[in-house]
Design goal:
mainly alpha; 4 helices; about 60% helix; globular
């Protein structure tokens, strides 16, 4: 399992969405298993809007 430590390691759309929500530091502070789960899910997303909604649900649960 990989511990992500920089944006260059992330899928591009996921990294951009994290940046848009100013959530990179939050993502990098998570345990490896949780990071990998999020990246695995992000790799299945097909649109920018869906990616933004996914990242928003991570950083702002319940919104």
């Amino acid at each position: 399992m990989k511990k992500y430590t920089q944006g260059a390691d992330l899928p591009v759309g996921f990294g951009l969405a994290l940046e848009e929500f100013h959530a990179m530091n939050y993502f990098f502070s998570l345990p490896e298993k949780e990071q990998q789960h999020m990246v695995d899910h992000a790799e299945t997303i097909q649109s920018k809007q869906e990616m933004l909604a996914y990242v928003q649900s991570i950083v702002q649960p319940g919104s």
